[in-house]
Amino acid sequence: MIDGAIAIFPYLKNPNVQKFLGSLLVIFILWLSKWILIKLAESNIKDAKALFSTKKTIGYLIVVVGLMVIGRIWFKAFDSFATYLGLLSAGIAIALRDMLVNMVGWIFIIWRKPFVIGNRIQIGQHSGDVIDIRLFQFSILEIGNWVKADQSTGRIIHVPNGQVFLSPLCNYDQGFQYIWNEIPVLITFESDWQEAKLILQEIVDKLPIADNKTAEAEIIASAKKYLIFYKKISPTVYTSVEDSGVLLTIRYLTEIRKRRGSSEQIWEMILTRFAEHPEIDLAYPTYRRV
User: Tell me: the pLDDT tens digits for 208-218?
Assistant: First the structure.
């Protein structure tokens, strides 16, 4: 039959024509295969996101296989199975680059342990507690965002593992189990700022915010692995001047998940103590006409 076709169409003897027709046949078979696979996916996958990802993956694979098969038709170099297999692997790696990067990210997370389940981290613009680590992504329970404190929003964020190579990663728990927190207290220029500073210092000294001995032990332990060095870890009150008054900033160590609770406790003590001293007034933006 083929000989008869060649007799009728002598130009079919041309190797380039044969390659061209072979390429068209491959394209048709691959198109038909893609159509069948997509129809099967639409029949069995109900989740819209999963269906979208499946369709994308099918499309990538069809393109890669098509390039490899057509390349083998046109170039003799593809006659070598090893070369063909290598190029096929390279094509798959390009088509599935993001998936492979996420797999390498998973290996990095498991091996180097930049964080583990239960750690509080920030990666890029997202912060939260790690609640799951999987092959392609890890999940965090979000904190912050519209909640004006380090407390949960209730949302779960799924982050591709490859982001550990692309975005800065902050680990609240690794190395040192405490964080520094600051509370700015602005009082008027007419207030007795020295008395106010003494009151604030008394408040933070009396509250059991952090165990200094435990913190010192952790700093010593962390210094063996990281360059963490603090000369002073006891609570301090700093003085500065702002446009609207004297700013007294409380700086203290607190446990990672107790920042909001400690801030509330300190502010309640401040309001109670300042109410006992009429010579101390909290400042706020004001306008004066002379």
Answer: 655 556 666 66
